Amino acid sequence: MKTPLFSGTGVALITPFRRQQETVDFTRLEALIEHIINSGVDYIVALGTTSEAATMTENERSAVQEFIVETVSGRLPIMLGLGGNNTLSLTDTLARTNFEGISGLLSVTPYYNKPNQRGLLAHYRSVAEASPVPVIIYNVPGRTGVNLSAETTLTLANECPNIIGIKEASGNIHQVMEILRNRPAGFRVISGDDTLTFPLLSLGADGVISVIANALPKEMSDMVRFALKGDLKRALPLHYRMLPLMNAIFEEGNPTGIKALLEAQSMITNALRLPLVKASKPLTNKLTTLYNEYRGQS
Questions:
Q1: Is this prediction's pTM over 0.70?
Q2: Which of 233, 235, 239, 242 has the fewest Cβ atoms within 10 Å of its own Cβ atom?
Q3: Which CATH superfamily includes the segment(s) 8-231?
Q4: What pairs with residue 106 in β-bridges?
Q5: Which positions are annotated as active-site residues?
Q6: What are the boundaries of each domain within the chain?
């Protein structure tokens, strides 16, 4: 039986930069993509929050998207991150975007403006009409300053056929349960928080868009796969084993922690673009220690 689109483990892909010029390190990006694919993940999210797309130029974003599509070469679905707080500008961008090789759109709720629920409904209806691929809503009030309510989510799920799911990162399990309890058939509920993924899967969620899976793609994929099959006894130890690292990588923001961890694995050079800065020495040391302990548990 074929796995439904965007179920299981998606990786919120980071963008490696070179330390000196801070240009995109495509060699490291290719190696990371190959490692992730070979580790059994289900799909890749390109140019999401974790990618630092907000600090890239339009030309860089286009180049990174094209490179990811070429490197993946149809082996996995790709979800493209594209959102904004100007609905007209966003729909215009969607019309100009090349969606070749892209299977879905991840679109964050409008930030800064703080629209009410009626404004969010109107925004996503416009996005759904403009997008040539299925849309996943992204609710992350800790970043955007606005929460997409369960009622609004369910209205969109029922009224907009092109909106097929939500990445829920509100941290409000009661809200997620309300969506899970009342969602229409086929509407995906995807965890947007690594640490809450196991609890949400046990409640009926469909998977995760994961940050830690950049560094632990096989382990996160195994945990999610076991949980989706109902084998919680095998999934739970994997969850608890990864939990200290999942907590630590967010202590100084994202992708600060995951890039420090990936450097500890010799996967990338740890470089970020301002206003983000490298992890502090205490956090870097903590992540290295936790990772060594993690490997020692193998």
A1: yes
A2: 233
A3: Aldolase class I (3.20.20.70)
A4: 81, 136
A5: 138, 167
A6: 8-231
- For 79, 138, 147, 227, 254, the CA distances from 54, given in Å and listed in that order, are 17, 16, 21, 33, 13
Count of CB atoms within 10 A of residue 284's CB? 19
Distance CA 56, CA 53 (A): 5
Token pair for 90: 């966003």
Other beta carbons within 10 angstroms of residue 10's beta carbon come to: 30
- State whether residue 265 is helix, strand or coil: coil
Give pLDDT tens digits for 130-162.
999 999 999 999 999 999 999 999 999 999 999
CA distance 52 to 119: 27
Helices (DSSP H) in the chain: which residue ranges? 26-38, 58-72, 87-96, 117-130, 141-144, 150-159, 173-182, 197-203, 217-228, 232-248, 256-264, 281-296
- For residue 209, the cross-strand partners are 10
